[in-house]
Design goal:
- This protein is of the alpha/beta class.
- It has two domains: about 130 residues, 3-Layer(aba) Sandwich (Rossmann fold); about 100 residues, predicted glycosyltransferase like domains (Thrombin, subunit H), CATH 2.40.10.220.
- The protein is about 30% helix and about 30% strand.
- Helix 2 runs parallel beside helix 3 and helix 3 packs parallel to helix 4.
- The radius of gyration is 19 Å and the shape is elongated.
């Protein structure tokens, strides 16, 4: 099924209805809460992964780049706020939304979570509607972090051992939209190289396909891809380029 996504090119699904594929990491040392959260998110379009400790969660986040993390605060060995702080201080993972959860009703603990950089806080015992609303809200916030720029850039893409030339129709610090037909599958990783006008150094990055579809009704089909391996310096070059071009045409940042 093809999707039309009028949001950021790294967006894995439209907000309303949470209907397209996304990878959610659930982190809790209690099996009961993991099972409860999985039951609330039991949709065929969601890929659910679990971790039972802070170090296990960090390893998964760094290797798999989930779309969203739902993270328990108090866990043996490493608390959730420490995990959150490490994720948010890493330029390769700091745009991943994190929802913190805790059964302790303490304003200081809640503040502790937000000081660590979490995007939302939900109290236990979890209620299904509250959790889904928090997911929707944090995804909207995450989408607004990186403005996107419509463009027409040629990229060399390595896919299944074959180099192809594909057009980039939208770019942000978080990823690109590539015109591709047939399209790579969601979850596939591609090596990309492209140049930005006025920038001497070529941009090389590894991306993961987040969704298939179009960014506008009249645009070509392709794939929205998230950067998963890119030098921080090059990511900053992309950000500055996008911001400069958007400022020049008076465009608004974020989603419209």
């Amino acid at each position: 099924m093809r999707l039309t996504i009028p949001y950021d090119i790294s967006t894995p699904f439209p907000v309303k209805g949470l209907s397209a594929a996304m990878k959610i990491l659930l982190v809790d040392d209690a099996e009961l809460f993991l099972d409860l959260e999985k039951s609330y998110l039991n949709r065929s379009s969601f890929t659910i992964a679990t971790a039972r400790s802070g170090p296990e969660a960090l390893a998964f986040i760094r290797s798999d780049r989930p779309t969203l993390v739902i993270l328990d605060l108090l866990m043996p060995g490493m608390d959730g706020d420490e995990v959150c702080r490490k994720v948010k201080s890493d330029p390769l993972t700091n745009t991943i939304p994190i929802i913190m959860v805790s059964s302790i009703q303490d304003p200081e603990l809640r503040d502790r979570c937000f000081r660590a950089g979490c995007d939302a806080f939900v109290s236990k015992p979890l209620k299904k509607e509250e959790l889904l609303e928090a997911i929707e809200r944090t995804v909207v916030i995450a989408k607004r972090l990186d403005p996107r720029l419509p463009t027409h850039l040629l990229a060399v893409v390595l896919h299944n051992g074959e180099h192809k030339e594909l057009w980039i129709h939208s770019i942000s610090k978080g990823g690109v939209f590539l015109e591709a037909d047939p399209a790579p599958e969601v979850g596939e990783e591609l090596d990309t190289t492209f140049s930005l006008p006025g920038v001497e150094e070529k941009i090389s990055a590894r991306v993961r396909v987040q969704w298939q579809g179009t960014i506008r009704e009249d645009s070509p089909s392709g794939v929205g891809c998230q950067f998963i391996e890119i030098k921080e310096r090059l990511a900053d070059v992309i950000r500055d380029y996008v911001n400069e071009k958007l400022a020049a045409v008076g465009s608004l940042k974020g989603v419209s």
